Amino acid sequence: KGVNFEKYDDMLVDVSGSNPPPPIMTFDEAALCESLKKNIIKTGYVKPTPVQKYGIPIISAGRDIMACAQTGSGKTAAFLLPILQQLMADGVAASSFSELQEPEAIIVAPTRELISQIYLEARKFAFGTCVRPVVVYGGVSTGHQIRDILRGCNVLCGTPGRLLDVIGRGKIGCSKLQYLVLDEADRMLDMGFEPDMRRLVASPGMQSKENRQTLMFSATYPEDIQRLAADFLKTDYLFLAVGVVG
Ligand code: ADP
Ligand code: MG
């Protein structure tokens, strides 16, 4: 496992949309805080992959993004690093023991395995900081996950159904939500999660697309993903494609 950088060196990168920021060539250029830099090194990442080089500055600039890149290209860090950097710069700290948790970021992925990987990566990058990620998914009791959320939650990672479930229980508020990430968007559609995704963005108290930053990731870019992007993203979103996208 890991990134094969050699095969990326001659990969096509396409950014479309108005005024895209220039890519970064190194993680140093991303102007990350010390703890994040330290955690990246500990994770063993030395240089950014193409989707990270182009994606990180786009997200840090506050832009919505639809990013398409093949599996294994490093999409997770492309969205986690700029989100965590912003939350650390803002000095957010999870309010523990509060009966209402208001995460700054919600990340959605279609399966327990995929969302758990994202959560573990978020934990590694947030290690030693005040930012607290939490993960929820179906197939296990909700009560335990709710208790975990109530211990403090800045980055809520979840599968679509279980996220709707915990939000519906009134323990999650969206008034502080800055980031909504829809990862593996094509797989979510294939698995029949489109109604859940639409319910999620329409859930009570959810920030409108004008008032949040929405980041969509997908390995492919068929018509139904383009339609979702048009519905969920601001009209000036940037489209980033790395490699050959079907
Ligand atoms: P994707 O979401 O595009 O399928 P992942 O984010 O899961 O890809 O990354 C694939 C693998 O590459 C993971 O094992 C991850 O830890 C590793 N990886 C990601 N970015 C880098 C990097 N900049 N340097 C080294 N390894 C990386
Ligand atoms: Mg991924």
From TrEMBL:
It comes from the Eukaryota. Residues 56-239 form the Helicase ATP-binding domain. The lineage of its organism: Eukaryota, Metazoa, Chordata, Craniata, Vertebrata. This is RNA helicase. A motif (Q motif) lies at residues 25-53. Belongs to the DEAD box helicase family. DDX4/VASA subfamily. Residues 25-53 form the DEAD-box RNA helicase Q domain.
